[in-house]
Specification:
Layout (H helix, E strand, L loop, with lengths): L2 E6 L3 H13 L3 E7 L3 H11 L2 E2 L3 H6 L5 E4 L6 H10 L3 E4 L7 H14 L4 E3 L7 H12 L5 E9 L11 H18 L3 E7 L15 E7 L4 E7 L7 E8 L3 E3 L8 E3 L2 E3 L6 H4 L1 H17 L7 H20 L3 E2 L12
Parallel strand pairs: 1-2, 1-4, 2-3, 4-5, 5-6, 7-10
Antiparallel strand pairs: 7-11, 8-9, 8-15, 9-10, 11-12, 13-14
This protein binds NADP nicotinamide-adenine-dinucleotide phosphate (NAP).
NADP nicotinamide-adenine-dinucleotide phosphate binds next to helix 1.
Length: 335
Amino acid sequence: MDLRVGVIGTGAIGEDHIRRLTNVITGAKVMALSDINVEKAKRIADKYGAKFYATGEEVIEAPEVDAIVIASWDPTHTQYVIASIKAGKFVLCEKPLATSAEDCKKILETEIEGGKQLVQVGFMRRFDRGYRQIKSVIESGKIGQPLMVHCVHRNRIPGPKHTTEMNIKNSVIHEIDVLRWLLGEEYKIAQVLMPKSSRLAEDGLRDPQIVLLETQSGVRIDVESFVNCQYGYDVQCEVVGETGTIRLPDPANVVMCSQGAHSYEIFPDWSDRFVEAYDIEFQQWVDAVKQGVVKGATAWDGYIACVTADACTEAREKGTIMNITMPECQKFYNK
Ligand code: NAP
């Protein structure tokens, strides 16, 4: 039987997830959706045969909906995740889980009170083939122990509501999660360097930024976050170990020879670059929910990512090096 899904937020990624749930993966059907952008949401509802509801809460409460996907704007995530847990429904919430660790804590408390893990966070890089290969090489010991990680996270242009704070809380939060997952350890120190800002960064946006993290065993990480790079969506990651290095491959693309140059296309945004990861993430989420379990990044992972992002934000604002106070994992999540 199909998992009957309700989707809140039908912007760029929400619409893409509805297409994915309908046309790509098996065992799910989008039954209901909502967005404050009513006209577009109704158009998408018509296209996919789903029912439009005026509010996210109505989608969560709808009797024809078994599980929820949240793809609305970041500050709305907490209220919808908490409402989903209270309705006893599994929920896949796009990253970030919330805009602060404080809000994540409210989600954890509600989930623990309900007595069952229901929340998965949309950290889809954990499902990307390249990152998975890096993880298995690290675990095999072939490059010895990791010592340093160099990362680049560039977007062609920022979204319309992008702020200086969001370079970390909305964008680098991907690296924060996936590197913690790759290295299998927590962070202890955060610092943010602010290079000369691009003249193309509008409305006072400070871009690029360099996030420096140190893990508890001393692995040093640098992440260049540049949301205005103009040329395309570019994600790079290289792990330097004691006896070798391993680097994220560029996504498979044909190489063209033309006009005196070898070239290959750089994807314009995340939707093409990580398409396979999103597909795998959603197939596994649907399959896991049908078995009554959460298999991807949990609410705890979403919380730890926000604890780290908050520390980075404070480090940037104060221009200082911050010690990160990492909470002990609660038994409920430590299974
Ligand atoms: P977007 O195109 O701006 O879409 C967000 C949608 O949410 C908009 O249609 C917005 O309407 C709507 N919205 C705002 N408040 C709402 C509310 N209270 N209830 C229902 N809908 C509401 O942004 P996006 O790029 O799709 O991003 C959406 C979420 O996905 C963000 O949290 C983002 O971080 C995440 N995301 C994740 C990835 C990933 O790689 N995993 C990639 C992209 C985005 P208005 O436009 O009228 O405000």
